[in-house]
Amino acid sequence: MDTWTVSASGRFTMLKHCTKCGELLPITDFYRDRSTRDGLTCWCKWCKREYAISPAGRRALAKSNASISHRRSVERYSRSEASRERYRRYARSEWGKKRRQQYRRSPGGRAAARAGDLNRKARKHRARDAADPVGGETITNIRTSRHCLYCGVETDKVTIDHILPLARGGKHVPENLAAACMYCNQSKSVHGVWSWLMSHYPGRIRNLAKQGTFGELAE
Fold first, then answer.
1. Do 166 and 213 lie in a common domain?
2. How far apart are CA 189 and CA 154, in angstroms?
3. pTM of the full predicted structure?
4. Backbone φ, ψ for residue 153 (5° rounding)
């Protein structure tokens, strides 16, 4: 703001300099702009309007609209099912697997893996039940089961999976732990049990439901 003046009605009016025309005008002659210090545009309304109808202003507006339209179209495509299916095909391809292995061996990939481990440990710490802790004996007993709870396949590489994921509010307690093969563990990730089984192993849903395997932990 530059100065004050007294209007004919005796009220004080704040004035501001327009950086384009150089005129000292009331602040009501400027548009609002939150990015500036005083909350007003540097150009007055008349200079703004003249620039908007000029060739240079029209070119700048067209360029801005094209950029916004392109960004919105990219965002819409990234959320579409076609984009997700394209990423799945790439992830299953040999080139996609090779790139993932290269990234995991890179410094950035190792740092990301370490950060993920730390976040997972933090979530486990917040989700741990002091009255029913998970000890080494519990983990060993789960690992001795050579069958995956989800697909039922026997495997030598048994992993520990949380039936109700920690990210969904699951607890790090023995009742929420299950033996799973590497594929099912990674594929299930943070998805709910029933929705994930419906898309991967719909034939096992009835048997698991009858056995009451998941109880109230599923979803």
1. yes
2. 20
3. 0.43
4. -85, 140
Angle at 43 between CA 41 and CA 48, to 5 degrees: 105
Total number of domains constituting the chain: 3
Q: Are 217 and 163 in contact (CB under 8 A)?
A: yes
Tell me the sheet residues that pair with 5.
13
User: Which among 57, 74, 91 is the end of a domain?
Assistant: 74
CA atoms within 13 A on the CB side of 95: 4
Residue 8 three-state SS: coil
Kindly report the number of other CB atoms within 10 A of residue 108's CB atom: 9
Find the range with the poorest average confidence among 22-26, 33-37, 117-121: 117-121
Long-range contacts, stretch 34-38, CB < 8 angstroms, 24+ apart: 38/1
Are 111 and 139 in a shared domain?
A: no
pLDDT tens readout for residues 131-179: 556 666 777 787 787 888 888 888 888 888 888 888 787 777 788 888 8
Of 51, 74, 97, at which residue does a domain stop?
Answer: 74
217 & 146 share domain: yes
Structural domain including 20 reads: 3-74
Q: Are 114 and 108 in contact (CB under 8 A)?
A: no
- For the chain, the maximum distance between any two Cα atoms, rounded to a whole number of angstroms, is 91
Length of the chain: 219
Identify the pLDDT of residue 6.
55
CA gap 55, 61 in Å, rounded: 10
